[in-house]
Amino acid sequence: MQILLRAAVIVLPLAYLLVAVDYGFVFFAAEPRAQRAATPALRATILLHLGYLLGLAAGSRQFPAATESQALSMVAFAVAVVYAYVEWHGRERSTGFWLVSLVFFFQLLASVLTHPETPDRAIFHDPFFALHVSLALLGYAAFAVAAAYAFLFLQLYRDLKAGRFSTFYGKLPPLAVLERMMLVALTAGFVSLTGAVVTGALWAERLYPSDWLHDPKILATLITWAIYGLALLLRRLRRWQGRQTALASLAGLGTILFSLVAVNLFLSGFHAFH
Amino acid sequence: MPGADDPRDPPVPGDPGVAGAADRGAAGISGAAGVSGVSRAPGAPGAPRTPRAPGAPAAADRAAAADPQPAGAGAASGGDGGPSLLLLGIDFHSAPVELRERVAYGQDDAEKLLVHLLARSAIAEALLLSTCNRTEVVLQPRDEEEAYRAALDLVFLARAPELERPGLLYVKRHHAAARHLLAVACGLESMVLGEPEILGQVKQAAVLAEAVGAAGPVLRRLLRGALAAGRRARQETAIAAGAVSFGYAVVELARNIFRGLEDCRVLLIGAGEISRAVARNLVERGARELRVANRSPERARQFQEEFPQAAALPFDQRLLAIPEADLVIASTGADEPVITRPQLAAAMDARRGRPLLVVDLGVPRNVEPDAGRLENVFLHSLDSLDHLIQRNLKRRKEEVPRVEEILDQEVAHFHGWYRGLRAEPLIALLQKRAERIRRQELAQALPHFPESSHERLEQLTRSLVRKILHHPSNRLRGRGGEEHLPRLDLVRELFRLDDADDLAGLEGADRPDEPADRDDRARRDEIGGPAGPTGRRGAE
Known about the structure:
Chain A is mainly α.
């Protein structure tokens, strides 16, 4: 089992890289063979990824988010599943290259940060932990998807505004659809992250009655939550349009990466994966 | 016979005077004296055939009854693995519009012309493609020279004798003719590269040829390949992607911003010809809600006659209509901008920042260029539309090699089909010979075996013959995509399939290996007659 899991750590980012390259051929060259291969290849890789996560869970008998590597891999998996659903639902492959590239990036980071030892602490066996972490990772995955759509929105917006018509023009869904997908993903992410913050607060109050607000991870998460909340509020009030919301979405992704990686690596606190 | 563009095509004996072989345009007819029958009026010689009644036999069937070398299974070979084909035509490259319009045929004229062409014994099948940019006739000839002369006289010279001048008319033969028709269907020969209408026009030409009875098995199969190539080119490549006209460029821009034109509210400022052209494109692609603001009420009324769904506004109310619009088209002859930046900013406030596409088609410009800097305002002028069109044309040109790959594949399929068609009688003879030998040998051997084993021996020998012939039969039919196929004449000689005495003995023998493939049955049905195992019809 351990050998298979170690092999998956190498194979998974490679598989996502190949799938991303395939979607690249779909996007840039409209290559028919690549179009036929893309969806089956993605689904097969998602199944492999699911097997890897189940293997991790079975091996440690706990929710597979005990290390930053496992958390990143969970985010990668969630983004891949969300994209596979969007593609199946909308019969739309033009955003695949960008989203699968994002998945590859997360999984590569996860593989690089893999630690041979998985900590075994009592809280990892608590169902409340699984709920809290699941909501947080689901939120992060939704924000990552929103950021990908935000990036594409900004590219197309720039093309249409300047009349330059770069390689993005004509290959993407219209601006209105990209904005809608971005807003749906942002809303879903914000709801999930709110749930994670609330469950985390209740749980922390029980386990760490004092000073839990000083944990760097919680501070970073609250900043992320505030950025997304403000962006959604201003968009709702029509004070912001698509472009500003898209920029905020990209800024939010930056704080998520900071929260997921930098806080855990360089700062200490009870959220750190040590 | 004019020179063909394919250097492999040998000159036709008795060519009435053609400038040397060259590509389009250069292959003109030189020397009017060499072109006989110029004065023949269409239909004058011979009795013209009447259009085919439902259920009446097709051209090839009639030809088969009258001609020992019928079309279809026995269609003359082009010498390059495909059937004999002849294409004569003019297009926008080769001839000016003054000549093209004279040889442009409407539906009724085209129908009559096809009937007259078929009245010539030299022509087995015919197709006429006549559009504003080209008139082409494709023939499956029994006699190439006669067919050429007939088509030249009836289709071209009868209406425009000037086409005798060199360089105006092009002629393609066999492989080149087949490939040209497929290229036309794919839009590679169109004035606007990849334009989609041509595929529909080829389809109409095919329907007409079918209705008149001018399409036989060869042209029918060629047209099927042309339509398939045209569809594939548009589905598998970007040869038809992107707008290449101003009207459609506006549609394309709108489609990149909004969900669909159906819910897009359009405001047209100016009701001139440019506005109408754009409105036509928008309405054809789904726009339903149109408002037009024009200084002259008379022009606005004329606009409404063409677009009854459009609501007319007084010109001075144009700014009030912007907050409700998604797409504004400005094309007035005003010397000053009819929409300024402050006016548009106020309108954007009123529409709470929703995206607005503004297309300025006026010269001088109708919208202040600075207005394009406003958030969510997408302002495009004639220059940016032209930039978009040039970009799309460049992308289409880049797709040409991929379309040519499709052409090669479809032409190869066509030739493969034709080869299979010609091989079928030979395969039947081969199978009959083997069956005859099997029966003879079995008849000699059976008395030496107990009666209980006779049925088993019968099965065994049948199976042996079937398995031995299976691979050669498939190779002869050209299956498997091999480039170098066995020569039919060599097979005929090797197995003595021309031996009259032997062949006489084959009558009545059963085929041991009935093709299980539906294509084979369909192929025999398609050639419309008993070109099957017993006859020598279609033999080389």
